[in-house]
Design goal:
This protein has 447 residues and is an alpha+beta fold. The protein contains five helices and 26 strands. It folds into three domains: 207 residues, no CATH class; 110 residues, no CATH class; 90 residues, no CATH class.
Length: 447
């Protein structure tokens, strides 16, 4: 929202006073910025305070040149502000020029970015030059005054506009404004009429900036799961910390990452490895069906398995696991055709019995194999809470190969972490007959 002026007022009070009241035409809008500029030709005291309901006034600039003085004050983010503004002086003040203005567009806290002041003699009044401002959107205000004979000020410079002007027979003052949209140095001037080279003048200027809040943090671009290279980099840092000097190629570390993932999944069956249900249609007279390529083990529901006949004409008929020896020979010699009641797994196949008599629809809930890591850029198929556990597994294997004394420590750390999850989840991993393994270190015949 651009900065703009909503209203202004000015007054001149000539004679010794200790307070000056001045009012806005209407109550300022909540959240707006108020500015007060003061110039005096024969003052003995400065502004001690400014009182207004719903506004807190802060000094932005001030300069004194003999009897002449100028001050700029501001009140940010007003709330329930009244129309009456009262200036209180430290001593009696004479020849007083007061300007007030209300500005919209200040949506953030306001601060004094830069200020400057200047004094001199002659027919041109100059505010002085500030340092370079630090934010683009700012309000620059300046109050300029001079002595003379019925003096007036005109022709603001550097893009400034005159807001208001006051004068009497011996002094004149004006408030000027500029709405900055880029950083720079703030300064203005005004030509005077009714003055001569020996007339003194005083001016000050303030650049009021808006405190732009820091941008929100960028959205998280971190991938939800780490790559093998992330693990390898951290593992090499750990190796350096424990003075492990044996060089291990990346492919060996990747092999241990795969073994560790398999072991974690085997013992804990994390939800990440729950596959979508496997649905298939049986063929009449056929009792063997291929398992899904990523099958790891069947999901259990309490003491029941997750293999069902769901149709046609049947709803969730549970098949029971049968481990009878030579059952395959028995089935192959049998001519019994009926709805299957039993199953077992062998050589990556599902066996069912009795042999289906019609095209039954079957559904099996199962856990999938973790995705094998083949290169450093592959994503590690493991949930983040297991990152440190997997790290300890690889450290154990690497240090064990080097016969390092820390090997048993990391083995204990790894097994403790896995055991904790195992105990909490109460997974019955001893039912090995429901596994079909794809890695060398587990036997395919584990019934």
């Amino acid at each position: 929202m651009a900065i703009s002026r909503a209203q202004q007022n000015s007054t001149g009070v000539f004679g010794n006073v200790t307070t000056i009241p001045i009012s806005f035409g209407v109550a300022p809008t909540n959240g707006n910025l108020l500015v007060l500029a003061y110039w005096s030709g024969t003052t003995l005291g400065s502004i001690a305070s400014i009182v207004q309901t719903g506004a807190t006034w802060v000094k932005a600039a001030q300069t004194i040149n003999g009897g002449e003085e100028c001050e700029i004050w501001y009140a940010p983010n007003v709330s329930g502000a009244g129309t009456l503004v009262t200036l209180n002086f430290s001593q009696e003040a004479d020849t007083n020029h007061v300007f007030i203005a209300e500005y919209t567009g200040f949506t953030y806290p306001v601060f004094v970015d830069q200020n400057a002041s200047n004094t001199g003699f002659g027919t041109t009044v100059s505010s002085g030059m500030t340092g370079t401002t630090t934010v683009a959107t700012e309000l620059w205000v300046s109050v300029l005054g001079t002595g003379g004979i019925n003096p007036t000020l005109s022709l603001p410079s550097n893009g400034f506009n005159e807001v208001a002007q006051n004068g009497d027979s011996q002094t004149g003052a004006a408030l000027e404004e500029f709405f900055a949209t880029s950083t720079g140095v703030a300064s203005t001037s005004a030509d005077t009429l009714g003055t001569i080279a020996t007339n003194s003048w005083t001016a000050c200027i303030a650049a009021l900036g808006v405190t732009i809040p820091p941008p929100p943090p960028p959205p998280c671009t971190q991938t939800p799961f780490l790559t093998a290279n992330d693990y390898i980099s951290e593992l090499r840092n750990r190796f350096a910390e424990i003075a492990f000097t044996l060089w291990l190629p990346d492919f060996e570390l990747i092999n241990w990452l795969n073994l560790g993932i398999d072991d974690i999944v085997l013992k804990t069956l994390p939800p990440r490895n729950e596959a979508a249900p496997f649905n298939f249609t049986m063929t009449p007279g056929v009792y063997t069906y291929p398992l899904p390529a990523n099958f790891y083990r069947m999901k259990e529901f309490g003491d029941s398995g997750g293999f069902y006949i769901t149709g046609p004409n049947y709803f969730n008929v549970l098949l029971l696991e049968d481990k009878t020896d030579d059952l395959e020979d028995f089935i192959s010699q049998s001519n019994q055709l009926f709805i299957p009641s039993y199953f077992w797994f062998w050589n990556k196949m599902i066996y069912v019995y009795p042999i289906p008599d019609i095209a039954y629809t079957a559904k099996m809930y199962y856990y999938r194999l973790p995705t094998t890591i083949c290169s450093g850029t592959d994503t590690v198929d493991l949930d983040r809470p297991w990152v440190e556990t997997l790290m300890k597994f690889v450290l154990w294997k690497a240090l064990e190969k080097d016969k390092h004394p820390m090997a048993q420590y990391y083995r204990g750390e790894y097994e403790s972490a896995v055991s904790t999850v195992y105990s909490e989840s109460r997974i019955k991993v001893e039912k090995r007959s429901r596994y079909v393994h794809s890695h060398d270190y587990y036997s395919l015949d584990n019934r």
